[in-house]
């Protein structure tokens, strides 16, 4: 390749990345406005924000929720907002509200853009990276991020740290990685997932050394509880709710990733067979994510069931890098998009889609016209929006499952028809 050709290639790649990021920012802005303008997001006005922060509309900066355990130990997000508010030399509650709103938007954009770069690093393909971010943004955990019962606060900051932390881990930038692990637990304790992956799935020096490094964020976690004053709280609240609402545990778990659960669980065979069973070359970094996926899932489900509430789907959404990478891996190795294009011309697939659509539309109208199905709640949950989202997720799940099963059968048929070597 000549210098001129390389320069053209470099300009073309940069232009594609710029256009991709521009599209990501546009989509994120649209989703943020949709959630807080039409879907009951608490950032739509100061009254709802005050309820979320357990303050009054005129004194949002009191942020009384952040003074209660365990929220008071998640210091990083509040520190950023409060520092910016102090820098304005304002005592106006509306200024605080705007800072809270637009920092939430900033970190939502940062999480999407940083995830794009992580996926681009893993797949070396802009189209796959962009597709993965679209999957990320299209989940109910993002579309309904600021609505009940999700009501996201510091999580998008945590997701940004997770993305950059995984990138630093894969690039062996140990100083950055340790720093991000510490910042992670200062944002949210669930970011201990980073040292967990490092400890058990990264080949770096001895296990004792990795244990020492992984203990640093844990010590930080303990240090925060000591210095800020240990305060007991009802740690069994989440477990009791989950046990009493198993239908919601299953339902909200399903719609969090919907159709993406299919390739995610299917790729568990990769871990069980201890290696890649396809002819596609896979990078060491992607290998780590796919092999660690079952264990990360167990860790997150276990901690959420015993310490969280499942309808706050932002909690289990933290496994999105593993789920989406597994999904894109399946798209790559199984040629899912090509299969979908082929099936689009099939009358059987069309009949299947029309049948599923008709059944689900009928179900939607039945549910929306029978409000007695839902028990009364003291919280302002946008029930109709959640019903519509659930129906859409069910339709996507059924459509993708048909495509996926069809592709697996075709692969098996091709394998059995191959002549012996």
Rg: 23 Å
Q: Would you report the number of β strands?
A: 0
Average pLDDT taken over every residue:
89
Overall number of domains: 2
Whole-Å distance between the termini?
A: 39 Å
Q: Which bin fits the share of residues in helices?
A: over 70%
Q: Show unreliable segments.
A: none
Percent of residues in beta strands:
under 5%
Number of helices: 19
Structural class: mainly alpha
Which descriptor suits the 3D outline? globular
Largest sheet: none
Description:
The protein has 421 residues and is an all-alpha fold. 71% of the residues lie in helices and 0% in strands. It folds into 2 domains: 322 residues, no CATH class; 75 residues, no CATH class. The chain is built from 19 helices and no strands. The model has no long low-confidence stretch (mean pLDDT 89).
Q: SSE layout and pairings?
A:
Layout lengths: L2 H36 L7 H8 L21 H13 L5 H31 L2 H12 L2 H4 L11 H16 L3 H14 L5 H9 L5 H21 L9 H8 L1 H12 L3 H6 L1 H5 L11 H24 L12 H15 L1 H8 L3 H22 L14 H35 L4
Helix pairs in contact: 1-4, 1-5, 3-4, 4-5, 4-7, 5-16, 7-8, 8-10, 9-10, 9-15, 11-15, 15-16, 17-19, 18-19
List keywords for this structure.
421 residues; mainly alpha; 2 domains; 19 helices; 71% helix; 0% strand
How is this structure best summarized?
Helices cover 71% and strands 0% of the residues.
């Amino acid at each position: 390749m000549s210098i001129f050709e390389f320069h053209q290639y470099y300009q073309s790649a940069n232009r594609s990345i710029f256009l991709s990021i521009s599209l990501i920012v546009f989509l994120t802005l649209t989703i943020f406005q949709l959630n807080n303008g039409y879907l009951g997001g608490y950032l739509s006005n100061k009254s709802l924000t005050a309820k979320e922060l357990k303050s009054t509309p005129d004194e949002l900066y009191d942020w009384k929720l952040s003074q209660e355990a365990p929220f008071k130990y998640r210091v990083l997000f509040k520190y950023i907002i409060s520092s910016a508010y102090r820098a304005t030399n304002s005592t106006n509650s509306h200024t605080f509200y705007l800072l809270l709103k637009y920092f939430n938007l900033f970190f939502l954009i940062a999480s999407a853009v940083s995830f794009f770069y992580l996926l681009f690093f893993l797949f070396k393909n802009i189209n796959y990276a962009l597709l993965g971010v679209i999957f990320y943004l299209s989940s109910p955990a993002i579309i309904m991020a600021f609505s009940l019962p999700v009501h996201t606060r510091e999580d998008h900051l945590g997701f940004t740290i997770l993305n950059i932390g995984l990138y630093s881990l894969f690039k062996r930038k140990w100083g950055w990685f340790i720093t991000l692990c510490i910042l992670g637990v200062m944002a949210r304790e669930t970011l201990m997932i980073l040292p967990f992956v490092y400890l058990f799935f990264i080949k770096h020096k001895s296990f004792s050394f990795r244990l020492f490094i992984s203990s640093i964020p844990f010590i930080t976690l303990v240090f925060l509880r000591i210095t800020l004053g240990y305060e007991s709280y009802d740690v069994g609240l989440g477990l009791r709710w989950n046990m009493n609402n198993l239908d919601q545990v299953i339902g909200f778990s399903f719609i969090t990733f919907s159709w993406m659960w299919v390739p995610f669980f299917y790729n568990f065979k990769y871990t069980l067979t201890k290696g890649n069973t396809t002819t596609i070359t896979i990078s060491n970094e992607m290998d780590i994510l796919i092999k660690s996926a079952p264990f990360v899932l167990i860790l997150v489900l276990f901690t959420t069931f015993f310490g969280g509430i499942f309808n706050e789907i932002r909690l289990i959404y933290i496994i999105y890098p593993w789920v989406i990478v597994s999904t894109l891996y399946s798209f790559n190795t199984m040629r899912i998009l090509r299969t979908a294009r082929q099936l689009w011309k099939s009358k059987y697939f069309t009949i299947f889609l029309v049948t599923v659509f008709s059944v689900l539309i009928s179900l939607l109208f039945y549910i929306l016209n029978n409000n007695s199905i839902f028990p009364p709640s003291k919280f302002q949950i946008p029930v109709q929006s959640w019903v519509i989202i659930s129906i859409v997720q069910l339709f996507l799940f059924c459509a993708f499952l048909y495509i996926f099963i069809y592709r697996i059968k075709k692969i098996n048929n091709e394998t059995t028809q191959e002549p012996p070597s």
